[in-house]
Predict the structure.
Amino acid sequence: MKLLFEKSSAGRRGVELPELDVPRRANLLPRESLREELGLPELSEVDVVRHYTHLSRMNFGVDVGFYPLGSCTMKYNPKINEDISRFDGFTCLHPYSPAEVSQGSLRLMYELERYLSEIIGMDKFTLQPAAGAHGELTGLMLMKAYFENRGEKRTKILIPDSAHGTNPASSVIAGFETVEIKSGPRGGIDVKGLKDAMSGEIAGLMLTNPNTLGIFDENILEIADILHSNGSLFFCDGANANAILGVARPGDMGFDIIQLNLHKTFATPHGGGGPGSGPVGVKKPLVDFLPKPGVEKKGDFYYLDYDKPKSIGRVKAFYGNFNVMVKAYSYIRAMGSGGLRKVAENSVLNANYLLAKLKKHYHLPYDRTCMHEFVLSDQGMPNGVTTNDVAKRLLDYGFHAPTVYFPLIVHGAIMIEPTETESKETLDEFADAMIKIREEAEKDPDLLKSAPRNLPVSRLDAVKAAREPRLRWKKE
Ligand SMILES: *Cc1c(COP(=O)(O)O)cnc(C)c1O
């Protein structure tokens, strides 16, 4: 497909501007201050409309089809939350407006913070962090402040080998060393390994539960005890809370800190760098260290509280990504507590339905009841067919590929998260495609190795694209 620059034709116009009604003064600006010829494309309106409409049709999104990208929770987001987040009262409010004229927005933040605390079982949340990884970093900074305040020097964070890559990255940015903890044969934390790793240097453990294998750690209470009796803190990577909403609360499992991804669990379209929100919740002993300002209420009046002497300070300009908070608030209010529980029940049911259908055809390394997602492997695939080939072939069948080659503890991982928003019919169609691909791998492996065949581009050189990105078009 041609670029706009390549479609350009000298003198073609999409708009007519009125004649200049002031004298043209050619030499008004000194020559060196004049911009070079920009070389913008010259096109008609219909050229531009067709170009962008065509581009949008080449894209894949959750509004187009099933998007089972494990760990990313690409569920369908009801449009009503979008509509509400675009109310003028929200979008036109200046962030420096005084509290007297921002009562509605402040109340929304105050109540959202209370809802999240109740749903997750924490004493208080901050809404400032901009996304999941940023929430992790904020949580780790809170841990640091907590130990400094106690006069303790703890330098190490324990991280399971199944963890999301952002966990070790955030720990290192926060100034901790990381120590890897192995998973046991059932996919949870190896409890003995955890006990052996305990020492006065351990600040805490970061755990995703249910973890990236989609497995709920059955030893969660014992793990919390091991940490707490060592004086360490227990951090939950709560990026994907779909499986537990209204059923179980991380606060009751013994976690001291959690980050949530509102853009995954609480209905904001994401991916492609769209705005996120990564609120961080804590138990009482950490509340004083939360970022400032916080949103508080005196009588009926909502205000921003800067009077927090032990706070770690600001982690984001203004109060975070407000528009995402509006969507999360509207989603929680629309669902109600019964609706949120159904989210958990259906996300778990959908994942187990697919798991039951696919495990006869693909290797399942941890054969247990799963939570919101599960992980297959490429073990036993015939004719040298790889996970990558399966993922590419799925695109030909009109599905987005699952997450592949993560978590790292599973060889050739295929991580499938159907989410709660998909119907049985869609799940069946996806399972049929996966089963058909498994048969093709047996009978006609070239079909897979040369896939995708039906898309505008086939196999891209991902390594070259990452190492030598061409971010700018230049005239030859
Ligand atoms: C998505 C995800 C993150 C990171 O969240 P971002 O908003 O992309 O920064 C962290 N942990 C887990 C388990 C995730 O799935």
